[in-house]
Write the structure tokens for this entry.
Amino acid sequence: MRQSHSPRRRPSRPPRIALALVTAVGASTLSACAGFAAPAPVADPVKVALAAAGGTRTVQAGDKLKVTAEGGVLTEVTVTDPRGRRLPGGLKGDGTVWTSSAKIAPATKYSVVARTKSPEGGVGAAKESLTTAQAAKLNTLVLDPGVQDTVVAVDRLLTLTFDHPVTDRAAVERRLSVTTDGRTTGSWDWTTDRSGNDQVAWRAAQRWKPGTQVTVRAALDGVDSGGGRYFAGDYDLNFTISRSCTDSDMGRVCGKVHVGDPAGVITSPVRGKDDHTTGIGDWNDG
């Protein structure tokens, strides 16, 4: 009797191929039945470029920074220095240009983050950086009082004297601050010293209260004092206003009018000294 052989079974296809076929068929069916269009091609990213606001591609200290977008618009631009301070600025016109409202400083690395939007609605972000060169000309200053954490007389002026002329006084003054534990108010007054150097003094609106702690901050690093002459650092100072003579065991040597002095002879405080034994107190007639 002839044996019949069962037909050879064809090996099954690997599941991954079957899944691929199902996916392809499903996509084809959806495309034919529902009329879905093929995916749109990915749009080219918006190109971002940095330059000086004056038009040169080389950005130097004293320039205003310009950020431009090609193939889309800018929605937000953030420029920060290593300390996290933002360079102020804003978008103009059709949104393709951002310009800083302040000049960039020398010897500073700026980080730029520009957020963009393409005509197709795609959003993106471009990250750039630039580092400016050292300044060719510098300005410096001397603070008075010149000793950190010293005690000074109630009539002592706080002054900053500059080694070179300050032609942009507004830019410098914006970076000066005086804070006290007694919330003393005052204002800056520009003048020149005996040598003709530019000087700015802070005058309290009321007489200093003895014991007041004063903090001075001159955040001038990178500030142009005028004519391209920059500051290359910040200045800080803390001092305390002295006690009155009536509260001090130094009453004998505090400034006072001595009873019994010859007519017209007055012993007065010595100004401009840090010595805590002279010129530190209120007037008295002891």
Notes: The CA atoms of residues 162 and 189 lie 14 Å apart. Residues 137-242 form a domain with the Immunoglobulin-like fold (CATH 2.60.40.3710). Confidence is low (pLDDT under 50) at residues 4-38, 247-286. The longest helix spans residues 15-34.
